[in-house]
Amino acid sequence: MRLSTKGRYAVTAMLDLALNGVDGPVTLAEISENQGISLSYLEQLFASLRAKELVRGVRGPGGGYYLGRSADDISIANIICAVDEWVEFTRCGGRKNCSGGERCLTHSLWDDLSSEIFDFLTKISIGDLIRRGEHKKADKAAHLSVVNDEGSRAA
Amino acid sequence: MRLSTKGRYAVTAMLDLALNGVDGPVTLAEISENQGISLSYLEQLFASLRAKELVRGVRGPGGGYYLGRSADDISIANIICAVDEWVEFTRCGGRKNCSGGERCLTHSLWDDLSSEIFDFLTKISIGDLIRRGEHKKADKAAHLSVVNDEGSRAA
DNA sequence: TTATTACCAAGTAAATTAGTAGGAAATGTG
DNA sequence: CACATTTCCTACTAATTTACTTGGTAATAA
């Protein structure tokens, strides 16, 4: 697994798209403005996202991007894999003395961890994140001024 | 959170250290050999790991590195944070029109996801990974030739 | 004394990230 | 139709990060 800043940009952009795309498509110019990402870099990212059918583009005036499918059917792993090319590491073939022996155990362990992280991110959808955000807002509205050390992060 | 190849190297090296360091310290030369990482790059990584007291170096002939504390007290998040400098993103201050309004929700959502991934990796220790590996070995020995689609990954 | 090892610093090649520039192809609107 | 808007596409580039190289110094066991 590989969670780089590139993947972060992509997830953030997709989140923006899901939030602002409820009535009509969202232009990359808007996302660029909102998130402080250059338009052309967004174009690159969205080319990858479009290739994996995570977004759908509409050209011309009034155009922009839609989510390619329901927000509940788009996982964080989907997004990150789309832009980050998912290099499979620990392909022990070709490595030193990795065949079968003690040596390979380390690789195998990392491989297990890696796929566990992947599973974790597969289970979180854009829809989940949004609902979670709504809950938090509702909670804040309900018992206002009740501040614990977790809630007061975003200034 | 940021899970780069650099963090991968560090986790792999720490795993190697934990596995081979049961009787006596492990030299970076050995890890370099085992994992195919250049000695000097390992030195850089271990400088960071040592600064966070995740490893302990012993100089001179017969020297090498020990884990800084019990394998159960070293989480994957610990390791990644040590080498990856943990840049805190989505510090919305200074950003566009991020103060309070709609705009910030996206950042906040990503921030939540980020800390969730962090929590996840905090809960997995080097010790956990090793025990998991041993279980897997035991399972293989017990009901041999029973292969499901998950177990047959590492060739 | 010597070999071995951690430890340290400066520099560098390669890869990746992020952004620029300059378009072409659709498409809604006047 | 003309035109503005927007996706879509390619090539180039600056900045940053990754991974490695080189050339040491300091500690220490034999």
UniProtKB/TrEMBL annotation, chains A, B:
<dbReference type="GO" id="GO:0003677">
    <property type="term" value="F:DNA binding"/>
</dbReference>
<dbReference type="GO" id="GO:0003700">
    <property type="term" value="F:DNA-binding transcription factor activity"/>
</dbReference>
<dbReference type="InterPro" id="IPR036390">
    <property type="entry name" value="WH_DNA-bd_sf"/>
</dbReference>
<dbReference type="Pfam" id="PF02082">
    <property type="entry name" value="Rrf2"/>
</dbReference>
<dbReference type="InterPro" id="IPR036388">
    <property type="entry name" value="WH-like_DNA-bd_sf"/>
</dbReference>
<dbReference type="InterPro" id="IPR000944">
    <property type="entry name" value="Tscrpt_reg_Rrf2"/>
</dbReference>
<keyword id="KW-0238">DNA-binding</keyword>
<protein>
    <submittedName>
        <fullName>Rrf2 family transcriptional regulator</fullName>
    </submittedName>
</protein>
<dbReference type="GO" id="GO:0005829">
    <property type="term" value="C:cytosol"/>
</dbReference>
